[in-house]
């Protein structure tokens, strides 16, 4: 079918932030007395809103995190971003092509607006994603896998959900898009195809330029 709007996840899709963020998060949790590997961080927190970390620590360790945990974790992640973060391979070229051909697109992420802003600026993608094309779970009060964020993005952009194509790298993101009655292609750069398919992905891509082919179908 022909799509009228492409909705991108940010972390792990447009920006190569997940390896950095999960390394920092797992190291910080371990430092606080909650031993966590990077693989466990991916498993438990990929595609989730940040507050899920508190829930996992409480359930698994019967513990709690400092009141300023999120702020301190962000400081550490942003410091690492400044020296390491890059756009995902092909992201800038894809956004440029979409803009040149007049295809409507936006970003919808469970991360905060501050996180998204920092990531886009450091990755050099801000010019392609001004504030009116950026949507955060902060806007709706709930993150993925709830469908609210994707529905909000589509409504704001003036497109019916069934005319949207979502590009996601996490099972929770796929679940959210499907619940919003949108087609969603799983990006397999970080997550195994089996996990994305099990979550209900319409299809799979391994490289971002493949999005242009989906729009040409």
Question: How does this model look, in words?
Answer:
It is a single chain. The chain is 46% helix and 12% strand. It contains ten helices and six strands, in the order E-H-H-H-H-H-E-H-E-H-E-H-E-H-E-H. The chain has helices spanning 18-31, 38-45, 52-61, 69-84, 91-100, 113-123, 148-157, 171-179, 193-198, 210-215; strands spanning 5-8, 105-109, 134-136, 164-168, 183-187, 203-205. Strands 3-2-1-4-5-6 form a six-stranded parallel sheet, sandwiched between helices. The longest helix has 16 residues, at 69-84. One of its GO terms (molecular function) is hydrolase activity. Its cofactor is Mg(2+). This is HAD family hydrolase.
First-residue to last-residue Cα separation: 7 Å
Reported by name, the CATH topology of the largest domain is Rossmann fold
Radius of gyration: 17 Å
- Total domain units: 2
Strand line-up of the largest beta sheet: 3-2-1-4-5-6
Which CATH top level class of the largest domain fits?
Alpha Beta
- Mean pLDDT, as a whole number? 94
Helix content: 40-55%
How many helical elements? Answer: 10
CATH architecture of the largest domain: 3-Layer(aba) Sandwich
Low-confidence sequence ranges: none
Family: Belongs to the HAD-like hydrolase superfamily. CbbY/CbbZ/Gph/YieH family.
GO molecular function: hydrolase activity
Keywords: Hydrolase, Magnesium, Metal-binding
Protein name: HAD family hydrolase
